[in-house]
Amino acid sequence: MKRERWEVLEKSLENLQPYYRLMNKLMSFGNDTILREKALDGLKGERYLDAGTGPGDMASLTIKKIKPKSVVLLDPSVFLLKKNGNNGEKVMGKFENIPFRDSSFDLVTCAFSFRDAIDHERAGEEISRVLEKNGYFVLVDLGKPDSMILKFLFYIYIFFYPVILSIFVTRGKLVREYSTLLYTYIEYPSYSKLKSIFERNNLFLVKEEKKMFGGAIMQVWKKYENINTK
């Protein structure tokens, strides 16, 4: 994603913060919470990073269910970090340059934010780098099906549905902000491309669930050392 477009997107995300939870639930037809909870079932972690934490919904659930000893909340927006009510170390930073040493965490989560990365390839490398051996990476996000027919249908969905919803939920105040979500979907990797990004970085899929015909996905990846598919 071009940096100028990313900066517009980040400003839009800040403006959308008061409506984030409701709109996320409506846009995913209630699957956002379901996928978050299923992703965390059976997982453990003591050193936890929520990447692209935003208002902190994923972090709140993870802290409640897993009770990690240390929590880091990472986001490029100071505004959103201030709005995040979770206890933990709040750090300003991007996916492409996570400001922590190698193997700093044994659990990394990323919910509805990975698609906002400037460079998805670089973001995948950084997530793997800061994750220790046998650590877990949880991804919950929109999906981009490989099927051209489904992909076309989801382009229509992502362009019209959020905008129509925003007219009612925000009384038309943030239509422009929701229209910027189309940018992220256009440049978001398809399902197979996303999978290959993580596999090239020693992450291997151990659990997955799709909703909305692949329009919303939950994936749990485990990191292994000394096995590289590059």
How would you portray this structure in words?
This protein is 44% helix and 22% strand. The protein has 230 residues and is an alpha/beta fold. It has a seven-stranded mixed β-sheet, with helices on both faces. α7 (148-169) runs antiparallel to α9. The model has no long low-confidence stretch (mean pLDDT 89).
In short:
This protein is of the alpha/beta class and 230 residues long. The chain has helices spanning 3-16, 20-27, 31-40, 57-66, 78-83, 120-130, 148-169, 175-179, 181-187, 191-199; strands at residues 47-51, 70-75, 89-92, 105-111, 131-142, 203-211, 216-223. The protein has a seven-stranded mixed sheet with strand order 3-2-1-4-5-7-6, with helices on both faces.
Q: Features of this protein?
A:
230 residues; 7-stranded mixed sheet; 22% strand; globular
Low-confidence stretches: none
Distance between the termini: 24 Å
Strand order of the largest sheet: 3-2-1-4-5-7-6
Radius of gyration: 17 Å
Decide which structural class fits the backbone.
alpha/beta
Largest sheet: 7 strands, mixed
Report the helical percentage: 40-55%
Write the layout of secondary structure elements.
Layout: H1 3-16, H2 20-27, H3 31-40, E1 47-51, H4 57-66, E2 70-75, H5 78-83, E3 89-92, E4 105-111, H6 120-130, E5 131-142, H7 148-169, H8 175-179, H9 181-187, H10 191-199, E6 203-211, E7 216-223
Parallel strand pairs: 1-2, 1-4, 2-3, 4-5
Antiparallel strand pairs: 5-7, 6-7
